[in-house]
Amino acid sequence: MVPGDNEILKKAIEEMLKHTGEADIIIAHILNKKVRSITRRLISIFYTNILNLLFGFNLKYYNGLDLYERSLVKKVKMTTDSFAFQAEILIRLLKKGYSYKEVPMYIKKPAEGHKTKVFKIKNLVGVVSSIIRLFFEINFAKNKW
């Protein structure tokens, strides 16, 4: 999955591809976080920490460039169409025991005036409700996911 906001550098994609086959999932995390606004960084830190706490991981980032075989994603029961879809894929696959490797990457500074749609109320509600539903399903559902 490559985000469509044009922040991913071609070189970063090439570096990620070099790690293909080293684990079931290759997860990118951003090194040059300061190219983003302070608000975006704080929300990202909060989101990552909450997901790590709720699901018992220690990932550096959930919503970046990820590499996984299509066959793995086809096995994932998707319950969201929100911005939490990447987190849902990762969490479900990692909870099933698939291996992962985190790889650092650099991104481009967003274009002047670029506004992310993540912070719209509708999108925030979608993400929060998706994460809550996923937490209860994984931890308390009688029929294992």
Question: Quick gist of this model?
Answer:
This protein is mainly α.
Entry keywords:
3 strands; 145 residues; mainly alpha; 5 helices
Describe the structure.
The structure is a single chain. A three-stranded mixed beta sheet has the order 2-1-3, with helices on both faces. It is mainly α and 145 residues long. The protein is 43% helix and 10% strand. α4 packs parallel to α5. The protein has one domain. It has five helices and three strands. The two termini are 23 Å apart.
Tally of strands: 3
Rg from alpha-carbon coordinates:
15 Å
Biggest sheet, open or closed, and with what strands and sense? Answer: 3 strands, mixed
Q: Write down the overall geometry.
A: globular
Q: In whole angstroms, how far apart are the ends?
A: 23 Å
Name the poorly predicted regions: none
Sequence-ordered SSE layout with sheet pairings:
Elements: H1 10-17, E1 25-30, H2 38-55, E2 66-68, H3 70-74, H4 85-95, E3 100-105, H5 121-140
